[in-house]
Amino acid sequence: MKTQDMAEVNVEKIGSLFPNALTEVIREDGTVERAIDFDVLRQELSKDIVEGPQERYQFTWPDKRKAIRLANTPTTMTLRPCREESVDFDNTGNLYIEGDNLEVLKILRETYLGKVKMIYIDPPYNTGNDFVYEDDFSQTAADYAGNSGQTDALGNRLVQNTESNGRFHTDWLNMIYPRLKVAKDLLSPTGFIFVSIDEGEVENLKKVMNEIFGEANLVESFFWESIFRPSNMSKTIRKNGEYVLCYRKSVFDYELVEAYEDPQGDASLTQNNNSVRALTFPAGYVKIKLPDGTYQKGVYDSIEVLDDIFVKNGTSTNDFRIAGKFKWSQEFLNDEINKGVTLTIKSSSLIPYYRKDYQKTALRPTKIISRERVADVLRAGAELKQLFEQQLFDYPKPTSLICFLANIIGFNDGIVLDFFSGSGTTAHAIMKLNAADGGQRQFIMVQLPEDTEPKSEAYKAGFKNICEIGKERIRRAGQIVLKQNSEAKGEGLFESLNDEVKQDVGFRVLKLDSSNMNDVFYRPEEFTSDLIKDENFKEDRTAEDKLFQVMLECNIPLSAKIVTTTIAGKEVFDVNDGYLLACFDEKVNETVITEAAKRQPIYFVMCDASLASDNVADNFEQIFKAYSKDTHLMIL
């Protein structure tokens, strides 16, 4: 019950390409493992081997190898559901996960491999005062207890990365590298990742991402105008922005679109040096913009629009005339109408038109994301304060930034991941986007439960850690989105949306924890009789805890539909309409197993200790062979 060892996976891939590079080595504990003979591999890859003191282009830092190994190291940790802190647990497709994001990413890697459309992260900037994760898992629990540094809820140590410690850039790079490396595996082949950063680490971050994603996959290094009134305390320059690095997962054709511009949107029928004359239009053809800004169509009886342009009945009941200084002739107008042109009267000097068959021009985003296009940090703070009626978070990102980034890559369904979710801005933005365009995007938020400062407004308001703020923000924002969505539909603004599509503002809360399984894997010389357990699971784990670990093992999305049913008096979990059936009750008899087999699930899971008798254990596989021979059976 642990994730894949990515080093072993990579050894297998290289071995399939270069079988002669495969070898075996004996480890210190006496075990024999497959390995790669790098001397042979180097000979296969190049006739001129680059090694030793020979100069080459490279980017490195102390402990980089350790950071790479850390990304490949498997984890035995799991995710436990928390219904009481969730919203609409049984129906939502969204996830909020508490815990060290590196461990969480490793857990998600197999189930969500290649399934995430967009990643946005706002990692801690390396200002010297921020806390960074210290990924040293070689320490024991006793060692952790002796550490003077701040720890999270799981005992993972957080260290303050001051320049005086001599590892200013190194610590930050060792924190970000393995997380980005694992995150890449989660991105879909046509996915994008956006990372916010300031000038302190932008150059190092760019080199790291060039190495992980490939320099050819750099889309743009955007500069967001994040501050309206920059501080004048600096003696050199007033800093009014920060960077957003954008990379694609792999080489594929794509277009970034900020908006669409109609090529004929500003063209005019009028020309001031012409004399006043009238053009005749089919009845109901022209949309008339009245002085109050509203549009009317088909109301033509002596309506004076503006100044010298007016509408009156024509000689026929089937047409009408507009008088003005037109540059178009009646013949040209008739020809354009036949081509599908649409006209809108809105001023005495401009009657714009466009053809229905014209291709709209895509406007590409600019490198500079202006304040006019995306709100600044002051507006973001006001947005958060409106939800909580007080300022709980310093320098949050505005939802408009996330909406902008999601819009330019152009998708309205798929998974959006943020593994430094902070105040929950990304989740808020995705709900707003879905409400606006009827999209079915889902979010996965991951956040370490860092304690709030005792003197902070957040702590005084009752929020003991950042996760509590994030979850409450999503709850409140979801209710506002639902209200605004309902009001907009009432006013006819969203008439094109499918009313049957439910607005998902819920989320399942999952919390990182140690494995649900008892540690029963011992070397023979370490085994003693007191290690024998009647139950493979830890005593404090619920049936739903076990279910979610099984879902991870079976690569079933953690947002999958779960229905609890009863078979012969025993509780059975039905996941994804019969894809997985799981029973963790006691004394499960042949009646339960037979009924489950008749439903022909893809997976059936139960506990070893749940079997009612040895006879049931003996007949278990035979029953499934009789009714559902293709079902994958798991006994835990």
Description of the molecule:
The protein is an alpha/beta fold. Helices cover 29% and strands 23% of the residues. The chain contains 16 helices and 30 strands. The strands form seven sheets. A ten-stranded mixed beta sheet has the order 3-25-4-24-23-5-9-11-10-22, sandwiched between helices. A five-stranded mixed beta sheet has the order 26-27-28-29-30, sandwiched between helices. Helix 4 (101-111) packs parallel to helix 6 (168-186), helix 6 runs parallel beside helix 7 (202-213) and helix 10 packs across helix 11 (425-437). The longest helix has 25 residues, at 466-490. 31% of the residues are buried. Mean pLDDT is 80; it is low at 136-150, 297-316, 347-357 and 491-498.
The helix fraction, in percent, is 25-40%
Major sheet strand order: 3-25-4-24-23-5-9-11-10-22
**Silhouette:** globular
Q: Provide the low-confidence segments as ranges.
A: 136-150, 297-316, 347-357, 491-498
Radius of gyration: 31 Å
Largest sheet: 10 strands, mixed
- Give average pLDDT, whole number: 80
Count of runs of 4 or more consecutive helical residues: 16
How many beta-strand runs? 30
Span of the ends, CA to CA: 10 Å
Class of secondary structure makeup = alpha/beta
Strand content: 15-25%
Question: Which secondary structure elements does this structure contain, and how are they paired or packed?
Answer:
Blueprint: H1 6-17, E1 22-26, E2 32-36, H2 38-45, H3 64-72, E3 78-81, E4 95-98, H4 101-111, E5 116-121, E6 131-133, H5 141-146, E7 150-151, E8 157-160, H6 168-186, E9 187-197, H7 202-213, E10 218-224, E11 242-248, E12 259-261, E13 277-282, E14 287-289, E15 295-297, E16 303-306, E17 309-313, E18 319-324, H8 330-338, E19 341-345, E20 353-355, E21 361-363, E22 368-369, H9 377-388, H10 399-409, E23 413-418, H11 425-437, E24 440-447, H12 457-460, H13 466-490, E25 508-513, H14 543-553, E26 562-567, E27 570-575, E28 580-583, H15 590-598, E29 603-606, H16 614-627, E30 632-635
Parallel strand pairs: 4-24, 4-25, 5-9, 5-23, 10-22, 14-19, 23-24, 28-29, 29-30
Antiparallel strand pairs: 1-2, 3-25, 6-8, 7-8, 9-11, 10-11, 12-21, 13-18, 14-15, 16-17, 17-18, 19-20, 26-27, 27-28
